[in-house]
Design brief:
Pfam families: Amidase
Oligomer: single chain
Number of strands: 17
CATH superfamily of one domain: Amidase signature (AS) domain
CATH class of one domain: Alpha Beta
Strand order of the largest sheet: 1-3-2-8-10-9-16-17-13-11-12
Shape: globular
Mean pLDDT: 97
Protein name: Amidase
CATH topology of one domain: Amidase signature (AS) enzymes
Radius of gyration: 21 Å
CATH architecture of one domain: Alpha-Beta Complex
InterPro entries: Amidase_CS, Amidase_dom, AS_sf, FAAH2
Length: about 475
């Protein structure tokens, strides 16, 4: 039997039933990687010897009567997570030899749950791109079209899953880095509520793995089904044992509803700052039609929705305010000079980026206060709705674009060019207020490329968008392997 595209849930059942061993699953996964990854380049740091040893250990543990959530299941890990004995570079050439001394907390949780780690997956330089390429490990190609990107920054993980390289993966998300690769590669991903899953050890080298609370950024699961996302999120969720974990455990509330017909959903397909491509709009409408057909209450507009333009501006300011913290002083002063030269009337996304890079602490506090007002607005909206369905980016996967200056790149939306980073506004809709969001497949473009949408839910009610994703998977179908 071909096991590589089976779900983690199916593999766990087969392992428990004695239909297959972890050693067999691991050998089959490695054989597929060695056969197919030359064309994809998803696995940048293989760890096959230790994976085989871990698989043998899992089989021995099962023979002793042990059972854990992921016991014996082959998985991959985004390169940006520390794994003792493997390099962590974030694609930065100056750190190609950096070797962390201990596993990231999420890698430890994977291993404690019994997972078999096959290796690490590719990322962009510094995790700061919507593509996954770097000088050390090269370019990761989209399994559906090798001339296109798999997305970023968890693009290696998404490509690995779409190619059958392991049943699960873990990634991270600040600017859609879980959701965009899932959308581009036709898989599932979940951006958890901000703070739900500990991030220690998912840190740029050579910084020490401290238990800090990140702003905007989260770590989260990737899979080929919605149910597998929930399985992996249950392993990942919980505070850092060095800090809040000393006092608190996590118990997520159940999904608000179990039946599709009970959900109240706001569907969005237009943003005031960027066009929505026809292929993505069709994906959103396909999901909306499935919701209506399943008896859900679907609305296209609501006065409760926080202002999308202000949300995008706040997101860009908050995101880029942290990106220049370690810039050299002279570079920072050049940015301040450029920002000071902006017209007060310039309310473009590019202006918000530049102003965000040089925010004073006082200005950041003001921006954060406005974020809290948006969070309050979302709480009011989620008293009326259970979820919001909307795009992840305006287009399917785009052709590789390695212009070294990303500010010179453009994104083509049905023949009209937009600044490259403007496509992040949809990802920021959930990121800025810290909401959970589940990326789900929603069909194919006319060219046969995957198209996904995101299901946004209330803070710390992650099981609600995950359950809706599962119900939609049953209704419209889910992952399909690339031809």
């Amino acid at each position: 039997m071909e096991w590589n595209f089976q779900t983690a849930e199916e593999l766990a059942a087969a392992l428990r039933a004695g239909e297959v061993t972890s050693a067999e699953l691991t050998d089959e996964a490695i054989a597929r990687i060695e056969r197919d990854d030359k064309a994809i380049n998803a696995i940048c740091v293989p760890d096959f010897d230790r994976a085989r040893a871990a698989a043998r250990g899992a089989d021995q543990a099962r023979a002793r009567g042990e059972d854990r959530p992921l016991l014996g299941i082959p998985v991959t890990v985004k390169e940006s997570y520390n794994i003792a004995g493997l390099p962590t570079t974030w694609g930065m050439p100056q750190h190609r030899d950096y070797m962390p001394a201990e596993d990231a907390v999420q890698v430890s949780r994977l291993k404690a749950a019994g997972a078999v780690v096959l290796g690490k997956t590719n990322v962009p330089l510094g995790l700061q791109d919507i593509q996954s390429f770097n000088e050390i490990y090269g370019t990761t190609n989209n399994p559906w079209d090798h001339g296109r990107t798999s997305g970023g920054s968890s693009g290696g993980s998404a490509a690995a899953l779409a190619s059958g390289f392991g049943a699960l993966s873990i990634g991270s998300d600040l600017a859609g880095s879980l959701r965009t690769p899932a959308h581009f590669c036709g898989i599932y991903a979940h951006k958890p509520t901000l703070g739900l899953a500990a991030t220690r050890g998912m840190v740029a080298p050579p910084a020490p793995p401290l238990p800090v609370d990140l702003d905007l950024a989260v770590v989260g699961p990737m899979a080929r089904t919605a149910r597998d996302l929930t399985l992996l999120l249950d392993v990942m969720a919980g505070p850092d044992p060095l800090t809040l974990g000393k006092a608190y455990d996590v118990t997520l509330p159940p999904a608000r509803h179990e039946r599709l017909g009970d959900f109240r959903v706001l569907v969005l397909d237009e943003h005031p700052l960027i066009a929505t491509g026809s292929a993505v709009r069709a994906g959103v409408n396909r999901v909306a039609d499935a919701l209506v057909d399943g008896g859900a209450r679907v609305e296209r507009h609501s006065p409760l929705l926080p202002d999308l333009t202000e949300a995008a501006m706040l997101y860009r300011q908050l995101m880029f305010s942290g990106s220049v913290a370690r810039f050299p002083v002279d570079s920072y002063e050049q940015l301040r000079t450029r920002a000071a030269g902006l017209s007060a009337d310039d309310q473009s996304l590019d202006a918000a980026l530049l102003r965000g890079m040089v925010l004073s602490h006082r200005d950041w506090i003001e921006a954060n206060s406005r974020r809290e007002l948006h969070r309050h607005g979302w709480r009011q909206l989620f008293a009326e709705f259970d979820a919001v369905v909307c795009p992840i980016t305006p287009t399917p996967a785009f052709p590789h674009d390695h212009n070294p200056n990303p500010l010179e790149r453009r994104i083509d939306i049905d023949g009209v060019e937009y600044p490259y980073f403007d496509q992040l506004v949809w990802a920021g809709l959930a990121t800025m207020p810290g909401l959970p969001a589940t990326a789900i497949p929603a069909g194919r473009s006319p060219e046969g490329l995957p198209v996904g949408v995101q299901v946004i839910g209330p803070m710390f009610e992650d099981r609600t968008p995950l359950r809706l994703a599962e119900l939609l998977e049953q209704k419209i179908g889910g992952f399909q392997a690339p031809k």
